[in-house]
Fold these 2 entries.
Entry 1:
Amino acid sequence: VQVVESGGGLVKPGGSLRLSCAASGFTFSSYGMSWYRQAPGKEREFVAYINNTGGSTNYADSVKGRFTISRDNAKNTVYLQMNSLKPEDTAVYYCKRFGSVTWGQGTQVTVSS
């Protein structure tokens, strides 16, 4: 199992970013995928989940209505569209396959004016 996150950066409050997670080493279309994040000095927390077909999603209350998780099974990639970003969204964002203990290197998202 390997996942590689990308798409992070510095954005102003209210701005948007789209994160990508390229997966390999397993049958991508058979597994749900999740996004997590870890802010400085805090524990890693759940952000969003999508099932293997993309037909079911789940979000943390803190991002509901602002973030959208999606996937492209033909490209073995899961996305996180982040809109209306707030300073408290600043964190390293990670994706993970359901049932796996493998984490990628993460991608840094910084929301600051």
Entry 2:
Amino acid sequence: VQLQASGGGLVQPGGSLRLSCQASGFRFVDYDLGWIRQYPDKRLEVVSCVRKLNGGISYSDSVKGRFTASRDTANRSVNLQMNNLKPEDTGVYYCHVNPSGTDYFGQGTQVTVSS
């Protein structure tokens, strides 16, 4: 299983970024895909989860209304459009999948929101 996240960077408050995660090594349509972020103090938060079957999407309260997740089955990718970014959104963003009972996170991408 490989998860390659990209798209992070430095952005001013109120700005936008689009993260993308390319997945391989498992049957893409069979699993939920999630975005998890790690704050600078190492706390983890599940930001979003895109369901496998009906594509239903859930968000944490802290990003609801600002972030939009999507999955592209043809390209085996999951994306996270982040708008109106705030300094508290700063962290390392990982995509996540749990095939066969094992968690995979990939290498993550750094998002820094600062003026």
